[in-house]
Amino acid sequence: MPEHIKMEIPSQDVSRIIGNGHSGRKVYGTAIRLVLASAIAGSVPLFTAHAQTTVTPVPGFPAPTTHSQQAYSPFDTFTSRWTRADARQIKARSNPNVAVGANSMPTSVTMPDIPANFPQTNPDVWLWDTWTLIDAHANQFSYNGWEVIFSLTADPNAGYTFDDRHVHARISYFYRRAGIPASARPRNGGWIYGGHLFPDGASVKVFGSTTLTNNAEWSGSTRLLKTDGNEVVVFYTALGFNRTADGTNITPPVAIISKANGTIHADLNHVWFTGFNNHTGLLQPDGTYYQTGQQNEFYSFRDPFTFEDPQHPGQTFMVFEGNTAGERGAKDCTAADLGYQAGDPYAEDLDTVLNSGATYQKANIGLAVSTDSSLTRWRFLPPLISANCVNDQTERPQIYIKDGKYYLFTISHRTTFAAGMDGPDGVYGFVGNGLRSDFEPLNWGSGLALGNPTDLNTAAGSDFDPDPQQNPRAFQAYSHYVMPNGLVESFIDTVEGRRGGALAPTVKIQISDATTQIDLSYGQNGLGGYGNIPANRYDLDFQGFVLDLLQSRTSSNANISLASFVQQQ
After folding, report:
1. Positions of the site: Transition state stabilizer (predicted)?
2. Is 217 a catalytic residue?
3. Was 395 annotated as part of a binding site?
4. What does the DSSP 8-state code read for residue 366?
5. In this structure, are residues 508 and 145 in contact, taking their beta carbons and an 8 Å threshold?
6. Closest by CA position to 198, among listed 262, 122, 271
7. Which of 69, 276, 476, 492 lies at a 20 to 30 A Cα distance from 553?
């Protein structure tokens, strides 16, 4: 039996199969062999199914697809679907009678309004996608008394616009004293800008001799390798562009999921990093599971998030954003992608959908597994979920485990939904019994977990060109990341026409089985502090602390309080 097949049977099923005495053991052994043979063949789920939450269809709308939450081996070929029947539940819950420009979505899944007088996190950089220093289980760590975050940044004074920042993106880091409540910090969160994380010119090396006009560093995740040490590894997306002066692609962009190892340092006054000189390309899309630039120059392949699955100890997995492989616009969505129940009077006709333009939207959430202890070699596994003919972007996916349930969170835009679909910018989520599951979309089977205030009765516009009749906060925040205890951080994009590039107020969602709702008791009417991104664990590296004090020659400042260094979060 291959090493990657791990048999797990719920205890109640083991008791039922084992029975009593020798005959029970014989039955048990026979059953195990039968189930294992089927599991290896990829045809039988490994965990007990869960009946989907009962959803009463809204008059005039279809019922959502039935999803069991059933878990499969991560190495199975099963891919769950976020279907058109599921996504139509978003519009079903939208109020068609609100005033123009109001919020038509339920308050329970709507992020409160961000004030237009929001503070800039730092005047010297725009920042957007932000993540934390985590371990293999997504706990957020402070290091020797300092909280640390990582963000995509760009220079607001370099001559390009806010919307051109993506091709100039660099990963930077910020830090602040740990353990200080949001109410005792500056309004902007008190984050100190540390500078670019990687040395200049280091990340471009992964492209070798490929012809590029410029390269960028896009989102990922940062792992603390040992929770009593200072070694870190950054998984990120290296993007290479070969474009004309007006931004037209000469050749498709090159996206390489990559990693670099470095060391974190801190003394009593600041945080800094060393290393990150050697960058290793890990994965490029294969054209079988994940669409390539040759198949579609507008493909998505980015945002690696790595973790260890407690159901599969010793193995490290990665989720990432992808697109379903195949030629751009190919009319190959199926009835299963539509997901309507038999006889549903509000079901769409497959040919009508295929001819609507919806086939240009084929997002998926990919999965890979590391094949070595240094996390340098990886192999693709089939996608965890697809959104064919539903949406084209499932960005920054993450696995969040709570009460034994596996939540797959992602973010998406209103403007990337397929023809006939609609939903706000924000967080979308799915729940199952394992890493690979027949994921049930959260909240009425829709998938919407937390959206910006949006009027789905009014045209979308965009963050850079909003429809004047649209809610002025429809694009207020994006790139949400769900943190421990249900806290959610994001960045400010556009509020009442004012562009952001700053950390948004943190909010909190209550997560229970297949539902989420905004916690309006958190902060001020649901809005916490700007950039309130607290560590929930601490790393005390005494040896590193002493060496860093000596290196920075600040030992004469010993009168500075060490309270933040020893404070437990």
Report:
1. 303
2. no
3. yes
4. E
5. no
6. 262
7. 276
Condensed to tens digits (0 to 9), the pLDDT of residues 268-301 reads 999 999 999 999 999 999 999 999 999 999 999 9
User: Cα–Cα distance between 180 and 170 in angstroms, integer?
Assistant: 28
| 23: number of Cβ within 10 Å | 9
> In angstroms, what CA-CA distances link 24 with 15, 27, 36, 38?
10, 5, 18, 21
Contacts of 541 (CB under 8 A, 6+ apart): 143, 144, 228, 229, 230
User: Do 280 and 378 form a contact (C-beta atoms < 8 A)?
Assistant: no
141 SS3 class: strand
Are 365 and 383 in contact by the 8 Å Cβ rule? The answer is yes
Q: Report whether 141 contacts 535 (CB < 8 A).
A: yes
> What's the CA gap between 414 and 400, in Å, rounded?
24
Other beta carbons within 10 angstroms of residue 496's beta carbon come to 13
- Using an 8 Å Cβ cutoff, are 67 and 38 in contact? no
Is 473 a known ligand-binding residue?
no
Amino acid in the structure at residue 137: H
The pLDDT, as a whole number, for residue 567 is 42
Provide the whole-model pTM.
0.89
Annotated catalytic residue, options 395, 425, 440, 493: 395
Residues with Cβ < 8 Å from 296, sequence gap 6 or more?
A: 323, 327, 328
Handedness of CA 431, 432, 435, 441 (dihedral sign): negative
Rounded Cα–Cα distance for residues 328 and 326 (Å): 6
**pLDDT tens-digit map of 33-80:** 333 333 333 444 554 445 567 788 999 999 999 999 999 999 999 999
Residue 231 among the catalytic residues: no
Per-residue pLDDT reduced to its tens digit, 402-411: 999 999 999 9
Amino acid in position 207: F
Phi, psi of 398 (to 5 degrees): -150, 150
C-beta separation of 456 from 448 below 8 A = no
Q: What is the DSSP string of 505-521?
A: BPEEEEEETTEEEE-TT
Q: Is the pLDDT of residue 563 over 70?
A: no
Q: Is 219 annotated as a binding residue?
A: yes
Count how many Cα atoms sit within 13 Å of the Cα of residue 67 in the half-sphere of its side chain. 35
**Through-space distance between the first and last CA atoms of the chain, rounded to whole angstroms:** 44
Strand bridging mode 436-437 / 405-412: unpaired
Beta strands 426-432 and 440-441 are antiparallel
Give dist(CA 206, CA 204) in Å, integer.
Answer: 5
- Determine whether the annotation assigns residue 371 to a binding site: no
Which residue out of 129, 217, 321, 489 is catalytically annotated? 129
Any bridge partners for residue 71, and if so which?
A: 437
What's the one-letter identity of residue 42? Answer: G
Whether 392 has a binding-site annotation, put simply, is: yes
Q: Would you say 218 is a known binding-site residue?
A: no
